[in-house]
Structure formats: structure tokens, C-alpha cells
């Protein structure tokens, strides 16, 4: 089991523990806001399962039906997670509306807040693990899961404030009101996760810093060639696809042109993890005098 899969399995166990704790907090208090918090945690568990499945699919090697690999499976998981976050927000809004129409005093609020605070602390620690490790491992599914948990931590904090204010002031209506505000925050988080994941499905290019490094490496390692043009990049999960045209002198031997390509590929793979590189070699009459000029 690799690191990405191990973290995904950990997310599932953490999600189940946090869901159980938040369920207990709602059972103790009868708070609409804490029920809303627990509802969001059911989404955490479902999306953890989806992320685990997507990561396992993405790890499969290329085959006849998927010659470019299964890397994009993680983006589908992240899109699903964003959609489920939005659905959870709508469910919370519905509960908040019903609570607003019929507010009621809370039972054992302090005990419920302590249990919910423990769940929030666990979520906060784990979302840091997911986002930091997900970026390091270039796993869209883990990063999306981490941002989802981060929104859960923020909303849980808002819920705790609402419940505490409702208890201190005696205004029971504050409980569902805070639940509604939290739902709006979750809705925004779901939209951001979905938007980022869709950009990956649309073959978005690598960011400017990575592209700059790629151009520098080509320019440094392509000694003997004339230029490199039509450089294109895209990312799919962990993989980064790089392709470009390399112009060499027309009389250069194939073995020499191939040696230049090997040198460029070795340098790119050393700098860009999981790079998949395609180089199209062309004679000098195909030069465009643009892109990376080697000479």
C-alpha cells in the first residue's frame, strides 16, 4: 500500500470516528446546528470512500483501453466531492429553515459542545495532513478531501459559537440561524472544490513556475539542437504530460538526435516527478524561430 492509499484509508477511519462523535453531540443537545454539523460529516465518510476508490483506479498502469493511464480518476472523485459538499449544504439549509420556524431550547449544551470540540480538533489535525501530503504527492483527491475537512472545521467553529450564544442569551433562534450561515460557507467551499477539479479534467496546463523550469531544462539540455517549439503541458492526477517539437540540423544522425532527446527526458524527469514526455524531432527547415531557442 503506497502513501497516497494509506492516507486515503486513514481519512475513512477519521471520518467514521468524527461522524460518531458529532452524532453523540447532537443526541446530547438536540441542536439543529450540531445536527447540521453531523450531516456534513456523513458526506466526509462518503467522499473518503470515493477518494479511496479513485486513488486505487488512478494507480492502475496504462492498458489497451487507457493507453495514457488512469490518472484522471482522481479528478472525478474531487468533482464528486465538490457536488456532495453542495448537497450537504442544501440539506443543512433545510434543517436550519425547519429549526428557524420552530426553535427550541437545547439539552446538555456544554457536554455536546465538548464532544463536538473533540471531533473538530481531530478534523483540524487531519485536514492539515491531507492538504500538505496531498500537495506533496500531487493527489487532487487528497487535496480536495483536505479542503472539504477545512470547511468542516470552520463550520464546526461557527456552530459552536452559535450554540454557545443560544445558551448564554436564551435566544434559541440563534441555533438554526448559525446553521444557515454555516451552510452558505460550505456551499462556497463546494463550488471551489468542483471548479478546481473541473480545470484538471479540462487538461489545464501546469502553473507558471513549473512551466518556466521545464523551458529552462530544455534550453540547457538540448545542446546540439536548434530550437524547441510548440511546447504543451497538462496535468492529470500525479502525472504531468509534456510534449514539444525539437528541431535539429537536417544532416544529424538519428542516434545523435535520440541522444539529445534522452538527455532532455532524463533531466525533466529528475526535476518534474511523474513526467510523461513526448518529443517530436524535426529537421531545420521546420524551425519556427520561436519557443526555446537553443543556439
UniProtKB/TrEMBL annotation:
Source organism superkingdom: Bacteria
Major subcellular location class: membrane
Cited SUPFAM superfamilies: Cation efflux protein cytoplasmic domain-like, Cation efflux protein transmembrane domain-like
All residue ranges annotated as the Cation efflux protein transmembrane domain in the record: 11-202
Subcellular location: Cell membrane
Pfam families membership: Cation_efflux (PF01545), ZT_dimer (PF16916)
An annotated GO BP: intracellular zinc ion homeostasis
Residues that span the membrane, as ranges: 7-28, 34-55, 75-93, 113-131, 152-171
GO MF annotations, alphabetized: cadmium ion transmembrane transporter activity; ferrous iron transmembrane transporter activity; zinc efflux antiporter activity
Keyword set, alphabetical order: Cell membrane, Membrane, Transmembrane, Transmembrane helix, Transport
Statement: the UniProt record of this protein carries the keyword Repeat: no
Cation efflux protein cytoplasmic domain mapped to chain residues: 207-284
Gene Ontology CC: plasma membrane
Membrane topology type: Multi-pass membrane protein
PANTHER family: MITOCHONDRIAL METAL TRANSPORTER 1-RELATED
Family: Belongs to the cation diffusion facilitator (CDF) transporter (TC 2.A.4) family.
Protein's UniProt name: Protein p34
UniProt lineage: Bacteria, Pseudomonadati, Pseudomonadota, Alphaproteobacteria, Hyphomicrobiales
Amino acid at each position: 500500500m503506497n502513501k497516497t492509499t494509506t492516507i486515503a484509508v486513514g481519512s475513512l477511519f477519521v471520518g467514521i470516528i468524527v461522524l460518531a462523535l458529532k452524532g453523540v453531540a447532537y443526541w446530547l443537545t438536540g441542536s439543529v446546528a450540531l445536527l447540521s454539523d453531523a450531516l456534513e460529516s456523513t458526506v466526509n465518510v462518503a467522499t473518503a470512500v470515493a477518494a479511496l476508490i479513485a486513488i486505487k483506479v488512478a494507480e492502475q498502469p496504462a492498458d489497451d483501453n487507457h493507453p495514457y493511464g488512469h490518472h484522471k480518476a482522481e479528478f472525478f472523485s474531487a468533482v464528486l466531492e465538490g457536488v456532495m459538499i453542495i448537497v450537504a449544504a442544501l440539506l443543512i439549509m433545510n434543517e436550519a429553515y425547519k429549526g428557524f420556524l420552530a426553535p427550541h431550547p437545547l439539552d446538555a449544551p456544554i457536554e455536546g459542545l465538548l464532544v463536538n470540540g473533540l471531533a473538530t480538533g481531530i478534523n483540524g489535525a487531519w485536514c492539515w495532513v491531507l492538504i500538505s501530503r496531498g500537495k506533496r504527492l500531487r493527489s487532487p483527491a487528497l487535496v480536495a478531501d483536505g479542503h472539504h475537512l477545512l470547511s468542516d472545521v470552520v463550520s464546526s467553529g461557527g456552530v459552536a459559537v452559535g450554540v454557545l450564544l443560544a445558551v448564554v442569551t436564551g435566544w434559541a433562534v440563534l441555533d438554526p440561524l448559525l446553521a444557515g450561515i454555516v451552510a452558505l460557507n460550505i456551499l462556497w467551499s463546494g463550488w471551489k472544490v468542483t471548479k478546481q477539479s473541473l480545470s484538471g479534467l479540462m487538461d489545464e496546463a501546469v502553473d507558471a513556475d513549473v512551466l518556466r523550469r521545464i523551458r529552462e531544462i530544455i534550453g540547457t539540455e538540448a545542446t546540439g539542437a536548434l530550437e524547441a517549439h510548440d511546447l504543451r503541458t497538462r496535468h492529470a492526477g500525479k502525472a504531468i504530460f509534456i510534449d514539444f517539437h525539437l528541431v535539429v540540423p537536417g544532416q544529424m544522425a538519428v542516434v545523435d538526435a535520440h541522444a539529445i532527446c534522452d538527455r532532455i527526458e532524463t533531466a525533466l524527469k529528475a526535476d518534474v516527478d511523474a513526467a510523461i514526455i513526448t518529443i517530436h524531432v524535426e529537421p531545420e527547415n521546420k524551425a519556427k524561430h520561436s519557443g526555446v531557442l537553443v543556439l
